[in-house]
Design goal:
With 107 residues, this protein is α+β, with helices and mostly antiparallel strands. Helix content is 28%, strand content 16%. α1 packs antiparallel against α2. The longest helix has 18 residues.
């Protein structure tokens, strides 16, 4: 189901993410954080009961065109997207980091 706001853990380590009360996993997360490239979606998942991280939530990214699946981090998404477009990923990554830092200061 679509959400009106971004889960806070998209900007933090997956090990810090606790499940949202009443949420069913896996679930698609919309919209992606500002600074992420278009053409991707995020899916929140929960670690299984036998995992040392059982009960915690993590996020994986998927290209909407099906070319990339189970991407672990925003940096990997930006790197793959820029490579496909033939552009330099460092400026895009720097802008994403600036946005994340700015959001953290807003809390």
């Amino acid at each position: 189901a679509a959400q009106d706001c971004l889960p806070w853990h998209l900007f933090r380590s997956p090990m810090d993410a606790l499940p949202e009360a009443g949420a069913a996993y896996p679930r698609d997360v919309f919209p992606l954080p500002e600074g992420m490239p278009a053409g991707w979606k995020a899916v929140e998942k929960m670690y299984g009961p036998t995992s040392k991280s059982a009960g915690r939530v993590y996020c994986r990214y998927y290209a909407l065109d099906g070319t990339h699946k189970h991407i672990c981090s925003p940096k990997q998404v930006i790197t793959l997207d820029c490579a496909a477009k033939g552009t330099d990923w460092e400026p895009v990554w720097a802008e994403y980091q600036r946005i994340v830092k700015e959001r953290k200061h807003e809390r």
